[in-house]
Amino acid sequence: MFTAPRRLRPAPLPVLALASAGLAACGAEDAVPDLVYEVTVESVVDDGSLSTDCISEGRIYEETFSYEIFVNEEEISLSVDGESFAIGSRSGCALSYTSAIWLEERPSGDLRWIIRGEADYEGAAGGCDLPDGVDWQGTEEVEVVESADESVPAGCTYQLQTTGKYVSGG
After folding, report:
1. Contact at 8 Å (CB) between 162 and 39?
2. pLDDT tens sequence across 68-107
3. Which residues of 59-97 are buried (b: 16+ CB within 10 A; e: fewer)?
4. Which stretch of 34-38, 121-125, 162-166 has the lowest confidence by average pLDDT?
5. What is the largest CA-CA distance in the chain?
6. Beta strands, E only, the chain
7. Smallest Cα–Cα separation from 166: which of 120, 98, 116?
8. What is the pLDDT of the chain when averaged over all its residues?
């Protein structure tokens, strides 16, 4: 099952080459993000079980990250806890993004996975249609694109929900 992003590194696959060009566009490592959110990522649970077609049972995932957004007109680069993670686009109050392909090294066999996400967000000025007390609300889908772990087949997906608070920026 998908676990917290530890012992991960971008996988040396062709998709990464395309994504890394966009990720580099956000500038130097010490660049100041345009927007920062504290985002909690949680497993989606339907009828008491995980929303996934990967496994029949698994643990519930929940972790909070700093999502840093670098804006270049309608294009964005997303860093998570200071590490370049995904590229995407924005339109009004909506973002969509796709990560590079990541390698997760596991004793039972390595996984390569990608995340596709969508979120509605608002900054300090507000103005977007989000629930009270929420500045970021969205979904992410983790897709296992390659697996050497027999218990997690390639092609399976995990559904995650994201909820967050505005921290700083424009």
Report:
1. yes
2. 999 999 999 999 999 999 999 999 999 999 999 999 999 9
3. eebeeebbbbbbbeeeebbbbbeeebbbbbebeeeebeb
4. 121-125
5. 48
6. 8-10, 35-43, 45-46, 49-50, 62-72, 75-80, 83-91, 94-99, 102-104, 111-121, 136-147, 157-169
7. 120
8. 82
Task: Give the length of the chain.
Answer: 170
> Is residue 38 within 8 Å of 169, Cβ to Cβ?
no
Q: Encode pLDDT of 97-155 as tens digits.
A: 999 999 999 999 999 999 999 999 998 888 899 999 999 999 999 999 999 999 889 99
Closest by Cα among 149, 160, 55, 58 to 99: 160
Sequence-ordered alpha helix ranges (H) in 86-156 = none
Three-class secondary structure of residue 144 per DSSP: strand
Q: Return the closest-CA partner of residue 87 out of 150, 19, 41.
A: 19
